[in-house]
Amino acid sequence: ALHLQDADAPGYFGTSGFIAGGSSPGSSYNTLETAIEDLVPYNPYEVTNLSLTFKTIDSEK
Predict the structure, then answer these.
(1) Which tens digit of pLDDT belongs to each residue from 16-34?
(2) Band of the pLDDT at 61, cuts 50, 70, 90?
(3) What is the DSSP pairing of strand 11-14 with strand 17-21?
(4) Has residue 44 been placed in a domain?
(5) Distance CA 23, CA 4 (A)
(6) d(CA 25, CA 52)
(7) Distance CA 44, CA 50 (A)
(8) Which of 13, 42, 44, 61 would you call most buried, defined as having the most Cβ atoms within 10 angstroms of its Cβ?
């Protein structure tokens, strides 16, 4: 949307759409703002090469 092209990151959205950009619009968003800083970008290459190993549980002990 054109009205978002000049918005600052991060963008805050609610059920009605865009709320604010750049700074938290209220205390209910503060925990999200902290969590955003800990996120890392999605890397599809890492997921493509993901390997899972399951540990066998010996139930006869």
Answers:
(1) 988 888 888 888 888 887 8
(2) low
(3) antiparallel
(4) yes
(5) 15
(6) 40
(7) 10
(8) 13
